[in-house]
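[stage:ingest] chain + small molecule (adenosine-5'-triphosphate)
[stage:ingest] validated
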Amino acid sequence: MRIGLYGGTFDPVHLGHIHAALAVKHDLQLDHVHMVLSARPGHRDQPNTANTHRWKMLKLACDEHSALVADDTELQRPGCSYAIDTLRHFRARYPRSQLCWIMGMDSYLTLPTWRNWQTLVEFAHLIVVQRPGQPTAVDQQLASFQHRLQAESLDTSRAGSIVFLPIPMLDISATQVRCLAQSGESPEALLSASVWTYINRNHLYLTKEGSFESQ
Ligand code: ATP
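[stage:predict] done
[stage:export] tokens:
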């Protein structure tokens, strides 16, 4: 099996995420993609929106696609949500499968700030997609790491390569969705209909602070 893992704060999940997951699944012929909600990210600011809301929106969006699995692995685990712990979990669950950790270029550029970042490739391949308008320049440390591991395509090994997929992505971010909503404009076109309905019903993203509930 070849399994995709796509982590994010998903605050909220938008069509850019869904498109990326489905496009990579198609391109690499993945069996399915786990959309892993980062409950308490270790390498970026905590999202303002409660985990319960972010999780419900992720579930709604994934339920519309049989290939996407909303995954609560990091919600179930106490403490910071480190990708390395999630990858260990998936490796134990799928000992013989190829694991593909999908990330946007912006996320990849922050890799050296992640816990045990050089060890991630022992558990999975890293699949990087370019987001429109995002920077691409890697620093020296990441460049030399990448130089050793970059591959044109996936071979049959379970992990260990960095693959840059030149497939088109949508120019959408969660920041853009939140900003539109806060300014009274509709981000409806950037979201699944079910997620937009959920946002309205729960009055999310009306203020900069978001909606704090039980985390
Ligand atoms: P924010 O604007 O709050 O930072 P975001 O839109 O970047 O959010 P995240 O949940 O932080 O979304 O991102 C999860 C993963 O999805 C990251 O690897 C990120 O690079 C990737 N990603 C986000 N938006 C897109 C997009 N439009 N196309 C491809 N990948 C994306």
